[in-house]
Amino acid sequence: MSQRPVKHSLTLHGHRTSVSLEAEFWQAFRDIAAQSGSPINALAARIDAARGPDIGLASAIRVFVLNHYRDKA
Q1: How many domains does the chain have?
Q2: Which candidate in 30, 33, 55, 65 could, as Cys together with 51 as Cys, close a disulfide (CB 3.0–4.6 Å)?
Q3: Are 58 and 20 in contact (CB under 8 A)?
Q4: By 3-state DSSP, what share of the chain in percent is helix, strand and coil, each rounded to 5?
Q5: Is residue 1 one of the residues assigned to a domain?
Q6: How much is the pTM?
Q7: pLDDT tens sequence across 7-39
Q8: Are 24 and 17 in contact (CB under 8 A)?
Q9: What domain range is 48 assigned to?
C-alpha cells in the first residue's frame, strides 16, 4: 500500500484541478474509466457534478471507487 497520496491534474468542465489520491485509488479509478469506455476526466466531471458542496473531490472519487467494487461483490 502506498504511503502518501499522489497528486494528479484533471480537467473538469474546462478547468484544471489537482486531486490527491493514493496510488491504489488512482489505478482503480483508471480501471473503472477504461471499463466504462469513459475518459478519466469525463468520469471525474460526473462525480464532481454529483457530489455535495461539503464533500471534497478526492473523497467523492474514493467513495465512488469503493461503491463500484462493493456493487460488483
Answers
A1: 1
A2: 55
A3: yes
A4: 55, 20, 25
A5: no
A6: 0.92
A7: 999 999 999 999 999 999 999 999 999 999 999
A8: no
A9: 6-72
